[in-house]
Amino acid sequence: MKKLSLIFLLIFSPLFMGSAKAENMSSNSYYLQFGNFNMGSGEFDRGNQFGLTYTLGGTAIGPFGEYGTSQYFIGSGFQYIYQIRQFSFSLSKLIIDFGELTAGIFANDNHTLTINTGSAGGYQIYVFENRPLTHSNNSSEQISNTTCNSGCSKSLAGIWDNPSNDGFGYNVLGDNVASDFINSSYFRPFADNSSGEDMEIIMSSPDVAFAETATITYQAVPSVAQAAGDYQTYVIFVAVPGY
Amino acid sequence: MIKKILLTLLLLSLGCLKAHSVLAQSTDALSINISPPVSYLYVKPGAGISAPIYLENQGRYTLRVTPQLVDFWPNQETGQVILKQSSSFKHLSIAGDYHAWGKEFIIRPGESYTLPLTIAIPADFPQEEYYLSVLFNVEQMLIPDLENNANTILSGVVASHLIVSVNLDGSDRSKIIVKDFKLPKIVDSLMGINFQVWAKNIGLNAGPIR
Predict the structure, then answer these.
(1) Residue closest to A111 by CA, chosen among A160, A168, A188, A172
(2) Hey, which end of chain A has fewer CB within 10 Å, N or C?
């Protein structure tokens, strides 16, 4: 009798079960058949140690098509959000104004820069100037690039805290900056494009970066014999994604 | 009392919903987003492909953007990108016009721009991999008086790489080998083991390491 009940139950049980229905979604411009909602997705410990991401409940997780090659690409699953994340680069301001420069007194100004690599594999940030600080009415009159207290170069920072050594230079402190910027007393002269010098790396990482920032401090002091007037230059930051 | 608590909770939850729906504009003077930062493209000789690059101005000011095409080569050991001054690759154009390189365009704050790049490869083109970078020279449209009073004017250049593999059958010709494997001489059984693997690609195109 027990066996008979079991067979009866097996045969007729489908009649009592509710059918499972996948959800279809549509609008005027699309029809998504058997779409599904993940029950959960997200990321743990973003970028610090291990960067684990997860997608739970999706019925067809994976890449469909080939990104950048085929006519379509569908990255199904939370992990593919990195493929569409943008590489971004920001400067907090675009004008550096030292005010009135006086021999023997440092003039300083600073700004921050921020980098997000998005889907790129790391980054490098370079910097160069188009010329040294140059008199607006006399191009032969310049505030020379700094040589620091006792020597520094465009690729190796040195201590520059003696304002009797005139010049123009910069310091960088922050995430993944060049290791020769030991503290805020260390400065480099800019690579001078007008002299054919190559731009120099100030910040780099082979890893994915989330809002990595650095503060660039500019320092200038004219010589005692410096001609009065306005001095100007252009500084260009180059943000290069890794690959 | 219960009514008050419920009303407060309702208002708080509505506040949260509202807060999530607002997209904050960056407070930075220059803030530019670029997508994709790196593209790997397979193109058959005699075929074409589009490779648009999307730019977004998230900063406070209107930007003047000038695109430039250069070659790059990867440092053989670190993989670091080394940019060249120009490009010898003549088959990547802006909407079919190779002379459009260097022509500036404007992006207002909060607006975006898509650069319509197209690659058209001649049928007899050598089957190789080409390393290209599109450099976007980004500067603020300055008011002349402001420009004259500044000591230093800052601008940015942001790159987007295109690695173009000209390949007849679209097959992956990368070949990754392990060139060196280093283990520490002393291992602490209570700590993790750090080891270094030096992989080398001896194939004909870039390949993934899985």
Answers:
(1) A172
(2) N
Other beta carbons less than 10 A from residue B48's beta carbon = 12
Which chain A residues are within 8 Å of B159, Cβ to Cβ?
Answer: 238-241
The model's pTM: 0.74
**ipTM over the 0.85 cut-off:** no
Mutate to test the interface with B, among A73, A91, A131, A136 (most CBs of B within 10 A): A91
Give me the residue label for tokens 């053989």.
B76
User: Where along chain A do its domains lie?
Assistant: 2-84, 88-241
Instruction: Give me the CATH topology for the region A88-241.
Output: Immunoglobulin-like (2.60.40)
Q: Could you read off the pLDDT of B29-42 as tens digits, one per residue?
A: 999 999 999 988 88
- Structure-token pair, residue B97: 């016009």
Q: Is B16 helix (H, G, I), strand (E, B) or coil?
A: helix
Q: Which domains does chain B have, with CATH numbers?
A: 25-166 (2.60.40.10), 174-210 (no CATH)
Backbone φ and ψ for A12, nearest 5 degrees, come out as -100, -5
Chain A interface includes B151 (CB < 8 A): yes
Q: How high is the mean pLDDT in each 10-residue block of chain A (243 residues)?
A: 63 55 60 56 55 62 61 62 74 91 93 90 94 90 96 97 96 97 97 95 91 96 90 95 87
Given an 8 Å threshold on Cβ–Cβ distance, is A242 in contact with B81? Answer: yes
Task: Tell the burial category of A1 from Cβ atoms under 10 Å away from its Cβ (0-12, 13-18, 19+).
Answer: exposed
Distance from C-alpha of A123 to C-alpha of B125, rounded to nearest angstrom: 32
DSSP tag of B11: H
The string of DSSP letters for A183-227 reads STTEEBPPPBGGGTPPPEEEEEESS--SSEEEEEEEEEE--TTPP
Residue B184, preceding peptide bond in cis (omega within 30° of 0): no
> Helix or strand or coil: residue B17?
helix
